[in-house]
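[09:14] KT: can someone run the structure on this one? pasting the chain below
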Amino acid sequence: MRLIPIYSWTRGVRNFNKRNSRFSKQPWAQGVILLLCVAVAMLLANLPFTRDIYHSILSTDLGLSVRTPSGHGFVFPKGMTVLNFVNDVLMVIFFFSVGLEIRREIDHGELSTPKKAILPVIAAFGGVCVPALIFTLINHGTYASSGWGIPTATDIAFSIGILSMLGDRVPLSLKIFLATLAVADDLIAILVVALFYGGKINFVLLGAALLVILVTVLINRLGEKRPTFYLFHALLVWTLFYYAGIHSTMCGVIMAFLIPMKPRYNRAYYYRKRDQFRRRLTEYDLIEDAGDFPNGPQRHCLRKLSHISKYCVGMTDRMEHMLSPWVNFLIMPLFALANAGVTITDPSYFNIFRFSPVEGSVSLGIFLGLLLGKPIGITLASFIAIKTGVGAMPSKATWKMLFAVACLGGIGFTMSIFVDTLSFTDQLPEVTSKLQDMGKIAVLLGSLCAGVLGALLITLVSGRKKGSTSLS
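[09:31] RB: done, structure tokens below
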């Protein structure tokens, strides 16, 4: 039987933006697909004839067993199931993409200067601290206390998607404010995962990983711009992190910051090659079209044009552009399918006000953290920064509109579910599973309510503003 090459069966994902450009370019497209995947995952996890199949697929072992003739051997990676593959391998690519985005914003975006970054960054810290405080106050001293990091995250895809659907009701400055806040929030969430949700640390392997990172930094400083070197080092760092007890997703962020931003060919090279570029275009136009496209001479011209244009763009920009369809329309949907499938064995999962002196109330802590903690924390931190003169109010914005936009920061979804999968692991397996399932339900309910509340408040505030303007 002839095997289909990987290049062929991945063509659909690689060409998604080309075939569905009108849909994929919409800011809400990723959110729609994620919601559909959540609905499918919930159905698969709860329908009697798919429940067992769904969970058995997620628990399938993917480790590669290697054994010697004497009977000794090992499994690599150890404990790698389908669910772990999604969370520990595919999510590394997601975090790598997030790292590239953060780095771009730091180098020449909304985080490039202290003046631009200070207000959203301070607001992001407020939006992390207050939900964590609310969760801790509710669950202190209970089994659920370790889940304080769950309601601290903001999902950039959903929040920006809702803002875009609201159109010009929100000032452009506040859209930039929320986007920058979400990027800073992602960075804080990554640090929270690395510092508080890793395993027992093996310092020998961690030291080896740091040595590889230092070698990568040296290669970068020496001007190496071929991706092969960085890919090999990324695989090595991921392996060392995985066995060292540091959550492997940190590897994606660290390697994103080590990828060279400067293109292989600088501006002077481009100007030298510009005439050659024009000659190649002219030469291409003069080639007789013999019916087959592209024919030999046309392919030669196209390769030359591609070489000149490709290496005048930095590796980070090329990688971010290349990974975008994979992350948005494959990795994140797979993450939702694998992690949002909660089997509802007890209707009390939906009772967010349920509290137990032993188990606490993970649902109430997450729900209030997202719905109230996020907007209060973001608005309070912004108020302090603006009143003390550290930051400045975004142009054409009011406090009412800023609070309404801050409500959208309570849409945790992706990162909140991800942190939920890492929480409560120090408990008994049945307690861990129950708390994680309740946490996921609370994340979905809290994110939904935060999105609806934010959209309603924005509509009301913008409507009142327009009405007062027309009367005057």
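[09:33] KT: thanks! The first helix runs from residue 6 to 9.
[09:34] RB: yep, looked fine to me
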